[in-house]
């Protein structure tokens, strides 16, 4: 099984990246959280991976942080949650925030994630609450935690997607916003800049 990949970013798609590892292109599916922290096309990236094997296919799911990878494996242990839904859930908010929402039983917040209904949210809380409490995922910062601006970056991507923009286009716009405003800009300022870029305003 493939547990980690390190290579050059060849292409960014809506929910995946193509990584060139010594001449072989690997298609790796990512959450919007991980997509937000990928380096630009042409740069080197390292991803933690989960290999999902089916009778007719083999899929790779990637993560930029150990927290997201750990939470992914907890999610797919829940009844009715497969890898694709797990990645979709991870796209909804940063891993530590998601873990905290599950730990505190925040049903309403969880059901705001696209694809997560009340029953699924209830299962997440019921089956994962105790395991998250002992994992430390909802606790303080860890060495491999994403940069402080990760929540704002992911929130910007989520806002653009909710406005109807395709994830790939939203990611390109978010990259430009980060270059223009720098690291740590408030979400409101990022969103204003993104809308200005989309409108083509000078």
Please provide a written account of the structure:
The protein is of the alpha+beta class. It has helices at residues 32-35, 66-75, 83-91, 95-103, 107-111, 118-135, 150-162, 167-181, 187-199; strands at residues 4-12, 16-21, 24-29, 44-53, 58-63. Strand 4 and strand 5 form a beta hairpin. Residues 140-148 have low confidence and may be disordered.
Corresponding CATH architecture of the largest domain: Orthogonal Bundle
Find the CATH topology of the largest domain.
DNA polymerase, domain 1
Rg, Å, rounded:
17 Å
Count of extended strands: 5
- Look at the structure and give the mean pLDDT: 86
Q: Strand pairing plus helix content: what structural class?
A: alpha+beta
Order of helical and strand elements? EEEHEEHHHHHHHH
Shape: globular
Strand order of the largest sheet: 1-2-3-5-4
Number of helices, where a helix is a run of at least 4 consecutive DSSP H or I residues: 9
Distance between the termini: 49 Å
- The total domain count is 3
Q: Given this structure, which CATH class of the largest domain is correct?
A: Mainly Alpha
